[in-house]
Amino acid sequence: MTATLTRRPDAAANVAAASGRPGAGGRPGLAVGVVVLWLGVVVALPLAALTVASFGEGVGGFVRAATSPGAVAALRTTLLLSAAVAILNAVVGAVIAWVLARDEFPGKRIVDALIDLPFALPTIVTSIVLLSLFGPSSPIGVRLNATPLGVAVALAFVTLPFVVRSVQPVLAELDREAEEAAASLGASNLVTFKTVIWPAIRPAVLGGAALAFARSVGEFGSVALIGGNLPGRTQVASQYIAQRIEIGDPAGAAAVSVTLLAIAALVLVAIRYVTRDRRVTTVASPDRSDSDALTGSRVRLADVNGVSPSAPGLKSGSRDSGGVG
Amino acid sequence: MRLSTPARLTLRTIAIAYLAVLVVLPIATVLTKALGPGLASFWASITTPAAISALNLTLLILAIVVPLNVILGTVAALALVRGRFRGKAVIQTLLDLPFAVSPVVVGVALISLWGASGWFGALAGAGVKIVFAVPGMVLATAFVTVPFVVRELEPVLRELGDDQEQAAATLGATPWQTFWRITLPSIRWGLLYGTLLTISRGLGEYGAVLLVSSNLPGVSQTLTLLVHHRYVDAANAYGAYTAATLLMGLSLVTLLATALLERSRRTA
Fold first, then answer.
1. Which parts pass through the membrane (chain B) (predicted)?
2. b or e along A271-283 (b: 16 or more beta carbons within 10 Å of the residue's beta carbon)?
């Protein structure tokens, strides 16, 4: 030990370097510099250029582009369908979560595995998969292509896992003694649900639905083929943006892009408030930190625009999801 | 809360029926349509020159993006967890942004930066094509896959602590030796998992890549663009089904790998 120390008098410096930036060859700041350069070129500069481009013709130009009839129609379609799908998946997702957490039947593991599929499939594959059943050559005679319902089906598919995977762990860990106490005191199932279960799962349901909404608002690939891109009817905001680029209006595309970014940011901020709900802790388990309703679940911010196979258990609650701008 | 048998069966039926209509039946239909005409014609459809070129381009983009984002993601995770420096919040926000941005918006952002009338438009003027060429597609895929490795490694590194790294350094190990012998072996599962997520996401990226590709069959189409092209431009629904099935197969392999990894990690 002493020999080592004499041979390497810079050991103390190594400690600092290793704890500071291992792998950077000990040169202080190099790792940070590389990271900043990487994130700067890949993420920050394009988004900065986008923001500047959206104001290329001044604030007036931005407002004109973002409030043009085509843009407003596309944003309206997007928001209405996203909200409808978020509500649908909040209800059905909670039912599925309940079935997976509390019911037992043969093949339950297969049903559980199916939930992860929508996150794993590339979005364009989703569009083709849905078209094969609900498209022009539908084997069951149901043609939803180029209808708002078709867009809704695509959005429902890609956002299916959000509510299920955020509610399921909460239901599984929910203290059943409170439920049994309520029942033994003569409470009906409806009363037990309203006073015991709903307060416990509410943040997970709302948080999951908000993530589903955020994902829907920016969704492009799964809608691309089945939606039909009909302006004023099925064209969603992302398709409108792509069309602006095709017809050579990058400033208009940038303005609507920034609007879409702002909506996504608002929703993500709202999620933080929803999951901060204080009432959760008192009803669920006292030692459960309230934000765990989402972070402890298998759904993450990553899945909002990420095709990522979600995996149980790996996501430790200590994940620091940071802030979204 | 104890449900009566009819109520329980009703909920179970709703859950299974929803999944059947939304997920199982559509996937079964696409598989039937892609494989129905026989394996030989399926194989022929996914080995046309355009399809092979699309597979090659997808793999080329992944071959550039995955090492880049895995290595830099590891450096970023180490810097964020172990280092002390100002501006961490800015880096954290930049790492979260790709999760919140629509793929189409990524495409528009890249055009705003690298396009002919963008900030670096002079490059395009000098004949260096970034957007509407492969480099733009690489940048688009890099953008959407930036956070995966960092976000997988951060909690692992935090849980690991730096006791062993400090001990190694005290015993005279250089930072490189410490990284290769102590840190890397401890984070290898998380690193592998993050890598699989990066591959999975990169493989399926469509919107961002569509906007910055010249989208020529056999030249600048990835697998996702090939699916789109065959269905829309070539009116070749069968070809779209087969290409989508190939892409679905690749994604399921990645999904299966993550599931196996998860299991081995839990038992390890």
1. 9-31, 51-81, 93-114, 126-150, 191-212, 238-261
2. beebbebeebbeb
Q: Is the dihedral of CA B5, B8, B11, B16 positive or negative?
A: negative
What's the rounded Cα separation, in Å, for the pair B176 and A240? 50
This prediction has a pTM of 0.86
Judging contacts by C-beta atoms under 8 Å, the chain A residues touching residue B99 are: 301-302, 304-306, 324
Condensed to tens digits (0 to 9), the pLDDT of residues A33-59 reads 999 999 999 999 999 999 999 998 899
ipTM score assigned to the predicted complex: 0.91
| A28: contact with B, CB 8 A cutoff | no
Residue that is written with structure tokens 């984070």 in the block: B187
Please answer whether residues B206 and A97 qualify as being in contact, where contact means their C-beta atoms are separated by less than 8 angstroms.
no
* pLDDT value for A27: 53
Q: Tell me which residue of A301, A251, A115 sits closest to B19, measured CA to CA.
A: A115
Determine the 3-state secondary structure of A227 from DSSP. Answer: coil
Neighbours of B29 (CB within 10 A): 22
Q: Measured between alpha carbons, how far is B61 from B221 in angstroms, rounded to an integer?
A: 11
The 10 Å Cβ neighbour count of residue A164 is 28
Q: Which residue has the tokens 């005191």?
A: A185
Task: Kindly state the DSSP code that residue A55 receives in the 8-state scheme.
Answer: T
Tell me the chain B residues in contact with residue A96 when contact means C-beta distances shorter than 8 Å: 15, 18-19
Q: Is A184 on the interface with B (CB under 8 A)?
A: no
CB contact under 8 A, A122 and B165: no
Residues of A whose CB is below 8 A from B205: 122, 307
B19 contacts A43? CB cut-off 8 A:
no
Q: Are A25 and B78 in contact (CB under 8 A)?
A: no
- What's the rounded Cα separation, in Å, for the pair A117 and B24? 10
Distance spanning both ends of chain B, measured CA to CA: 37
Check CB contact under 8 Å for B96 and A221: no
Q: Report the distance separating Cα A144 and Cα A141, nearest Å.
A: 10
| B8, B108, B227 member nearest A257 (Cβ) | B108
